[in-house]
Every structure is written in structure tokens, then in C-alpha cells.
Amino acid sequence: MKKLDNTLIIGIGNNTRQDDGLGWCFIDELEKICFNNDHLLQKYQLMVEDADLIVTYENVIFVDASKNEIKNGFSIEQIFPAKEFAFSTHSIPPDQVLNLCKIVYNKTPKAYLIAIEGYEWDIKIGLSKRAFINLINAKNHFLNFIKGIY
User: What is the pLDDT of residues 16-31, one digit of tens each?
Assistant: First the structure.
């Protein structure tokens, strides 16, 4: 697989909360195929400090579980900086991290969000069967998707 040296892929979630671990599992799937290991990251949540992390990349791909019903079980969409910045001491969404990059560094990487539909959120390690199917479909689609943008 071609290394994407200017791309960071961040899996967001918590693998001890069943399907909330979809973002982490996505990263695990990419690691299994030796995909750009140096630019894969797993995080419980995004923080304001992540603006400093992503600003050095041309492309950033965020991967997270979704409680919303999504056609085909996943979506891949380009995202842009939020129009206004809202500060939180807890987590912030990807568009807010992009906004902070724009404000602080006057630079914004091209960004995408991969949302993968989950179904079960209890304290337990392991994805539900339906979420695992969505994960594999999202990964396969993503591998074709990146061929089109790089």
C-alpha cells in the first residue's frame, strides 16, 4: 500500500464500550494491512490540543462511531472548519479542531469524517455483529476512496 506521508488518520472512541470502539477498530484494520502505520492514531476524544497535532498534515481523516442511522452503515464526507469556535474542556468535534487550526495557525488540512453506524454501547469489549459488518464495509470502501483522492 502506498504510504500517505501527509495524511493522518485518527480513530476516535472507546473500545471498552462495544460499538463506540469502531474508530479504534478501523485503525486496527488498517494496521493489519500495514497501512501507513506512522500516521495512524487512536484517541478517546478530540481536544483543543489536537489542532497542534493535525496542522502539520495536508490531509486528516477522522473515524468515529455514530448512533445515527446511516445508509449502508457508514459514510465518508469531506468536512470543513466550523463557522464559529465553541470551547469545551471535554471533547470537541472534528470541525471545531479544524476551526482552531484555521484561527491559530492560519492553515487548515483537507479533512474527512468516516462515520460508522453502531448499535450497542454497553461496557463490554467487542463490536456487535452488525457494527463489525459496517466496519469491514467502511474499510473496503475507504481503500477504494483513497485511490481516487491520491
Answer: 999 999 999 999 999 9
Confidence (pTM): 0.93
- Which one-letter amino acid corresponds to residue 118? G
Dist CA 112 CA 96 (whole Å): 13
Q: What is the dihedral angle through the alpha carbons of 90, 53, 64, 97, rounded to the nearest 10 degrees? A: 60
Cβ-contact 29, 73 below 8 angstroms: no
Q: At what angle do helices 22-32 and 129-149 cross, to 10 degrees?
A: 60
What span, in angstroms and rounded, lies between the C-alpha atoms of 24 and 13?
A: 6
C-alpha cell at 58: 495536508
Domains observed in the chain: 7-149 (3.40.50.1450)
